[in-house]
Amino acid sequence: ILLGSWFVVISVMECRVLSIQSHVVRGYVGNKSATFPLQVLGFEVDSINSVQFSNHTGYAHWKGQVLTAEELNELYEGIKLNKVNHYDYILTGYSRDTSFLEMVVDIIKELKEANPSLVYVCDPVMGDHGAMYVPEYLLPVYRDKVVPLADILTPNQFEAELLTGRKITTEEDAVEVMDLLHKMGPKTVVLTSSDLPSKRGDQFLVALGSQTIVKPDGTNTSQKICIDIPKVDAVFVGTGDLFAALLLAWTHHHPKDLKAACEKTVSVMHHVIKRTITYAHELAGPGKRPSPAQLELRMVQSKADIENPAIVVEAKVLQKSSH
Amino acid sequence: MECRVLSIQSHVVRGYVGNKSATFPLQVLGFEVDSINSVQFSNHTGYAHWKGQVLTAEELNELYEGIKLNKVNHYDYILTGYSRDTSFLEMVVDIIKELKEANPSLVYVCDPVMGDHGAMVRTPPTFQVMDLLHKMGPKTVVLTSSDLPSKRGDQFLVALGSQTIVKPDGTNTSQKICIDIPKVDAVFVGTGDLFAALLLAWTHHHPKDLKAACEKTVSVMHHVIKRTITYAHELAGPGKRPSPAQLELRMVQSKADIENPAIVVEAKVLQKSSH
């Protein structure tokens, strides 16, 4: 008897994602970071490249071209004229341009009309560690136009503070901020990192998540979780883009179980990052800090971990509260 | 495996041609793929409508300059396909020359996309054509399709290949093969781009065995095409011709076949000849 005959036949997943992110010739940020994992997990990925750069902007040099809002609209028009503007998910990340972001908003509105069950996964990339690295005038566009359309939001602590106007210093603050973000739009919010102290010590950072679920009696409840994530002593680029893509995939498979979705997402991140840092140190040599080129995510080498992650973190359910 | 490919091809938002067709299979097979998108279109030009933007030769050079300034212009393979622009193609040539200087063992896989089903008044016999092509440069030539009659009948098309190998005594020899490929009653787009990417991968694993490399390549093509046509007919419904959108290659669904193809064709070794 072939081993294969014991496997359950699973029907092929038909799920189409529109991802509007950067393209880099070399390395893994934006669409380069998001596309391979989603494809490996069986998603059809349509990708609009908002820029084409040689590499990410953390290298000593970078060169390339940006897409204008008009060009973005042109590409969408082509899809629309062929009547194939039907998506199950939209995924967006880093943007520097208000007019581009506003065109993205218009496109999402139209796609949501075409498919009301469309899920918009939004990484509201604005900054980190207390500093913005996009122009300040993007904040009102995110806050007032983008986030209200989002179904899943993946801000870090700083971005969550910017969007809600509230500071996070305790876990209670984080819970309040996530509830405020729910009120702005998204049913699922993941604070991808925070400065909150971890009970496991200073080698860990705390991430939190919240998902509102409508109970059978019509009332809302929310599942709130927190995860302790081992810190790594290196600056990675593209990890946020990978995180959002993986969260899309795992919330698709676990739509009402944020705990499971986050455990898988964070576990994959861990495997990719570990593989990356090991290889980077091999390349750099003993005692040398790896370069941005050496720190590029070991994406294709992590295919097996992406497909079938060994779970290496456990999310804690904080509280269920009814509203 | 540490193997880096630079692929300079089209990007389509939706569907599988150019870099969209080449990148996923190569990544799934463990290759690092750096991709320069020569155009960004909504979809391939076989649809009723298409919209998008093209990269100029200057912009191509800019991107290459970025890679070069960071001193990461080191590749094991280059892959190119469809191009409409002479100045762009000439910039590609300059880049390849420089990359070959940086790495003399670089392998350039070239699909010289110019047309199909054209008429030639007089064609030299196929072997001579492949040998003429060897003399022009490439050590490996695959005629991906031909109008030659197949011994297996008219439901098959004939593909041929030739690889020159330097023997230990310094003389050249060539391995020539032919494969009968089952015809499919549909127009696919992106299959040539997929073929070239797969041939890159399988010649990498079988550098001196064109027979094995072609059998794997053609087998994967067969699985992908079969899956695609089945699904296209499901979508179109009985008796209807599938649309270009419905005929997009079932690429992500074919991951297992790409990784570990069941071999479904056998290439015939034609002759070894010494030169």
From TrEMBL, chain A:
InterPro entries cross-referenced by the UniProt entry: PM/HMP-P_kinase-1 (IPR013749), PyrdxlKinase (IPR004625), Ribokinase-like (IPR029056)
GO BP of this protein: pyridoxal 5'-phosphate salvage
Pathway annotation from the record: Cofactor metabolism; pyridoxal 5'-phosphate salvage; pyridoxal 5'-phosphate from pyridoxal: step 1/1; Cofactor metabolism; pyridoxal 5'-phosphate salvage; pyridoxine 5'-phosphate from pyridoxine: step 1/1; Cofactor metabolism; pyridoxal 5'-phosphate salvage; pyridoxamine 5'-phosphate from pyridoxamine: step 1/1
UniProt domain Pyridoxamine kinase/Phosphomethylpyrimidine kinase: residue ranges: 93-281
Cofactor: Zn(2+); Mg(2+)
Annotated signal sequence range: 1-19
Locations listed in the record: Cytoplasm, Cytosol
Gene3D superfamilies reported for this sequence: 3.40.1190.20
SUPFAM superfamilies to which the protein is assigned, alphabetical: Ribokinase-like
Catalytic activity annotation: pyridoxine + ATP = pyridoxine 5'-phosphate + ADP + H(+); pyridoxal + ATP = pyridoxal 5'-phosphate + ADP + H(+); pyridoxamine + ATP = pyridoxamine 5'-phosphate + ADP + H(+)
Keyword set, alphabetical order: Acetylation, ATP-binding, Cytoplasm, Kinase, Magnesium, Metal-binding, Nucleotide-binding, Phosphoprotein, Signal, Sodium, Transferase
GO CC, alphabetical: cytosol
GO molecular function: ATP binding; metal ion binding; pyridoxal kinase activity
E.C. numbers: 2.7.1.35
Subunit structure and binding partners: Homodimer.
The protein's role, per its UniProt record: Catalyzes the phosphorylation of the dietary vitamin B6 vitamers pyridoxal (PL), pyridoxine (PN) and pyridoxamine (PM) to form pyridoxal 5'-phosphate (PLP), pyridoxine 5'-phosphate (PNP) and pyridoxamine 5'-phosphate (PMP), respectively. PLP is the active form of vitamin B6, and acts as a cofactor for over 140 different enzymatic reactions.
Family: Belongs to the pyridoxine kinase family.
Protein's name according to its UniProt entry: Pyridoxal kinase
Lineage: Eukaryota, Metazoa, Chordata, Craniata, Vertebrata
UniProtKB/TrEMBL annotation, chain B:
EC top class named in words: transferase
GO molecular function, one term: ATP binding
CDD domains listed in its UniProt record: pyridoxal_pyridoxamine_kinase
Family annotation (InterPro entries): PyrdxlKinase, Ribokinase-like
Keyword match Kinase: yes
Gene3D superfamilies: 3.40.1190.20
One GO BP: pyridoxal 5'-phosphate salvage
CC terms in the record's Gene Ontology section: cytosol
EC number(s) from the headed UniProt entry: 2.7.1.35
Protein family membership: Belongs to the pyridoxine kinase family.
Protein's recorded name: pyridoxal kinase
Organism per entry: Sander lucioperca
Gene designation: LOC116037693
